[in-house]
Amino acid sequence: MGKTMHENAVAAPFAAEKLRLAGLRPTRQRLELASHLFGGPDRHVTAESLHDEVVEAGIKVSLATVYNTLHQFTQAGLLRQVIVDAARGYFDTNTGDHQHFFLEDEGMLIDIPGETITVAGVPTAPPGMTVDRVDVVVRIRRS
Amino acid sequence: MGKTMHENAVAAPFAAEKLRLAGLRPTRQRLELASHLFGGPDRHVTAESLHDEVVEAGIKVSLATVYNTLHQFTQAGLLRQVIVDAARGYFDTNTGDHQHFFLEDEGMLIDIPGETITVAGVPTAPPGMTVDRVDVVVRIRRS
DNA sequence: AAGTAGTTTAGAATAATTCTAAGTCGAGAA
DNA sequence: TTCTCGACTTAGAATTATTCTAAACTACTT
Q1: Is the CB of A129 inside 8 Å of chain B's CB atoms?
Q2: E strand or H helix at B118, and its extent?
Q3: Residues spanned by the domain of A72
Q4: H-helix or E-strand containing B15?
Q5: Using CA atoms, how far apart are residues A19 and A25, in angstroms rounded to an integer?
Q6: Whether B140 and A125 lie within 8 Å, measured CB to CB
Q7: How many structural domains comprise chain A?
Q8: pLDDT by residue (tens digit) across B69-104?
Q9: Which nucleotides on strand D sit less than 7 A from a protein beta carbon?
């Protein structure tokens, strides 16, 4: 199974516009990564997992480009980085307000919608500092 | 300046007991690391920072041993690992229920006491899984 | 068609952490 | 005390994720 018509005919042009709006040239690599990332429901990837996935799909992209692209997309606000594991970095296509379950056994993330969890009582930041964001990670494991 | 009498006469024996209770042999290295970690108020360290600190204090310990020891102390419940930075691992001598400010600019942690923040609405874990713990990280930066 | 700045890439470089294999030490037995 | 053995420590190599470098390539403007 290769790429479906859906991905090429619909997702890619969609992606091209996203990239242009973000001020990024719509190169082949970026377009292909973007359609893998944004062509379906929200997802969580690592640089390796995305690289493996696109290589598997027959796309020629270097791992360095995957890293570059993930960071550029993150800077452009198309992705968000999630810090849950000291060993590797995760990127989330859902950039809205939400939190995560982290399955420690499998190294897998599951979104928790933004309205679900309420965090109350966050103290004001020390003088001269501002809150960038509040992350909640619910660490779960096989019971 | 070497070790003070306080550290040797009070903190170290205290540490020796801690180690014995944890089932860890009170070796010179573990005792010295323990008194640096537990001989004062709660603190946050990385393997490098602790290693630098003890070497500076004239103690002979290898970085590998610092890593080993931090992990053993963590397993024994004497320390807790805090994941806030993809680049390095932090260890916290405060193992009780509490949360953190993370100063992204300096890579520094500040404790937020356990009663301060309330997290409501945490969904039940997926079937077959149990919540290990809920971490809240308030990321702050210079404004 | 050509120029140029932005991109991609292979491979080297870095940084944190772990592993390995050999030497050392602590605590109980003799 | 001395012996013994498993636990512990260590230097240095190895591993892993990520970043850097410098050269080749490509999208867009003129």
Answers
A1: yes
A2: strand B118-120
A3: 5-82
A4: helix B12-21
A5: 7
A6: yes
A7: 2
A8: 999 999 999 999 999 998 899 999 999 999 999 999
A9: 7-12, 16-21, 26-28
